């Protein structure tokens, strides 16, 4: 059991690759065993199961990352999940992303600067760690100088992050929103990426972020270039 493994090894983190039907049970077992950090990689977990796991993790004070995510990496220190370890090295950038592949792309494009920590929070409607949670951690981290935030269409997470940035963030934030050309009413890739009416569009999210001083790239490469400009000042 996870409890026995924790007792035998002193483990404080668990990475879960369990198929969707059994992921809730695996996550709850890890929470009940006292694991402090859980990375839930699995895609396709029913939203109802995710809400139960997220609520239980919050009640227990557990840091849950995911579901449907690549995990978290601090280059040359630790890697929980499926992020390739050799894309980038240690540095002074932080990265939080809804998208796994865009996480990898920005890590590679800014590999000459390097990163403190990169985490993919997942693209499902309900996730354990939000953009705001990650931004707060980077704000408190003395080794992180600039944060890159990757969002995508659907929901209002990026708008809420913009409001939090305005009130709390002293470090520069550069953002990219995936889905500028997405048609209305279509689910794009991730379960949470759906535009309905005027809410959840990439343009609306970019507008909210730019209104609080966050520069938003229109492509991943342009986003990397903006970060490069700020860091080179």
Question: What would you note in describing this structure?
Answer:
By secondary structure, the protein is α/β, with parallel strands linked by helices. The chain is 38% helix and 21% strand. It has a seven-stranded mixed beta sheet, sandwiched between helices. Helix 4 (100-109) crosses helix 8 and helix 6 (157-168) runs parallel beside helix 7 (202-211). The longest helix is centred in the first third of the chain and has 14 residues, at 47-60. It starts with a helix and ends with a helix.
Quote the average pLDDT: 93
User: What does the largest sheet look like?
Assistant: 7 strands, mixed
Describe the global form: globular
Strand ordering within the main sheet: 5-4-7-6-8-9-10
Which bin fits the share of residues in helices?
A: 25-40%
How far is the first residue's CA from the last residue's CA? 52 Å
Taking Cα atoms only, what radius of gyration do you get, to the nearest Å?
Answer: 17 Å
Low-confidence stretches: none
Based on secondary structure, the structural category is alpha/beta
How much of the polypeptide forms β-strand, as a percent range? 15-25%
Q: Would you list the SSEs in sequence order as H and E? A: HEHEHEEEEHEHEHEHEH
- Summed up, the helix count is 8
**How many strands appear in the DSSP assignment?**
10
List strands and helices in order, with pairings.
Blueprint: H1 2-9, E1 13-16, H2 20-32, E2 37-40, H3 47-60, E3 63-65, E4 71-74, E5 78-81, E6 90-97, H4 100-109, E7 115-120, H5 131-140, E8 146-152, H6 157-168, E9 173-178, H7 202-211, E10 215-217, H8 220-231
Parallel strand pairs: 1-2, 2-3, 6-7, 6-8, 8-9, 9-10
Antiparallel strand pairs: 4-5, 4-7
Helix pairs in contact: 2-3, 4-8, 5-6, 6-7
